[in-house]
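Hi everyone,

Forwarding the result from last night's run.
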Amino acid sequence: IAAGDREALGELYVCYQRVLFNYLLQLTPDYGLAEEILQDTLVAVWKSAHRFEGRSSLQTWLIGIARRQAHNTLRQRKLPLADESEMEGMAATEPEPEAFTLASIARDELAEAFRQLAPLHREVLVLVFVYELSYQETAAILGVPVGTVKSRICNARRSLRAVLDAREEARR
């Protein structure tokens, strides 16, 4: 790509478009806008490929570019970050109907609690637990120290636990 090979950009798109698009849907609930930002991301990759030094994984570098493109676009259009959760689309794997129903209820409760988290906390949880990025990779994407990532994860877990506990208490 850095050498101007358009086929290489096409191959990159085929390999990473789903990961990038799903990540962008975390930042904006607008499907069309997410597609637009994905295209902007690929243009930015095309223009900046010569700067990739391999200090992070390719996926980490791409997510970082997608994040910056999304934040720039949302800021320019004065739009908020999305409140949607990747977790909503997760399917239960239990074959028993009763267990499936209970798992669905638990998943729905968790997804609802997840939506109540601050965008800062949702984003760090998605990067670490959904995309399975290391703390170092997450810190690089967010532009913060590793200690800040750890702190955000700790605070996000604490907030999530508080929301779930409050829901449980309300049911009693």
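Residues 135 and 150 are 7 Å apart (CA to CA).

Cheers,
N.
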